Amino acid sequence: MGVSGRADFCSQVVKYGMFISNLIIFIGGAIVFVIGLITIVDRNFLSELLGTNLFSGAVYVLVITSALVCLLAFFGCFGAVKEIKCMLLTYFILLFLIFVTMLIGGILGYVFREKVELTMKQEMYSSTNLYGVRRQITSAWDTTQTRLKCCGVETFRDWKGKLPLSCCQEIDRDGIQRKPCQDHPTLQNTYNNGCYEVGFQFIRDRANVIGASGIIVAILMIFGMVFSCMFFNMIE
To answer: Distance (Å, rounded) from C-alpha 133 to C-alpha 230?
Structure first.
């Protein structure tokens, strides 16, 4: 099989265009994969306080599809080199399916921003009653308050006298020594920011990044589909 006649300038442009587009798609997919993994690990400490699994679902979708995109980019390049129409057609179909999936994952990342605002505060207030009772909740609150330097949902008064040690301001960077605040909490010895506002901003920023990266890669995949269709029609 080959391009009709000898490979002319137009077919070479399309062929190299497919190579370049697949290289860009591979790089984009790899970036989304890494961002997704970092996001999964980085937001793990907040998972018990979110009140929704929508964000986790969107991130996992993007991680899986971005890994498939990287593999598919190699498949597309191989099909272009061998000039096999069946491989190019398969490449186009798979790329289209992944394109739809990744686009949905990116959109879910943005939708999550609105969903979390409705559920996160209520979930955080409910979970304060389980602090010291459930190990996962206790660990989530301690890690959240330490990492984000916040206390309570909106203020340290949300703890109603049961102030965790993680609310106390750190004296050293390692967090080993803290100001005594559990018995007499004040604005001078506790973290002044509420965890809802800080946590919501923390998650929203990462939702923006993962959502935007997924949509950008989905758009780049359009070029891969266009070049594969063009090259498919040039092969006899």
So the answer is: 62
Give 84 or 148, the one with higher predicted confidence.
148
SS (H, E, C) the chain: CCECCCCCHHHHHHHHHHHHHHHHHHHHHHHHHHHHHHHHHHCHHHHHHHCCCHHHHHHHHHHHHHHHHHHHHHHHHHHHHHCCHHHHHHHHHHHHHHHHHHHHHHHHHHHHHHHHHHHHHHHHHHHHCCCCCCHHHHHHHHHHHHHHCECCCCCHHHHCCCCCHHHECECCCCCCCECCCCCCCCCCCECCECHHHHHHHHHHHHHHHHHHHHHHHHHHHHHHHHHHHHHHHHEC
pLDDT digits (tens, 9 = 90+) for 147-198: 889 998 998 888 887 888 889 988 876 656 888 888 888 888 889 899 988 8
Q: Dump pLDDT digits (tens) for 220-235.
A: 888 888 888 887 777 6
Beta carbons within 8 Å of 108's beta carbon, 6+ residues apart? 54, 57, 58, 61, 211
pLDDT value of position 216: 82
pLDDT at 113: 62
pTM over 0.85: no
Residue indicated by tokens 């604005």:
187
CA distances from 118 to 122, 176, 182 (A): 8, 35, 30
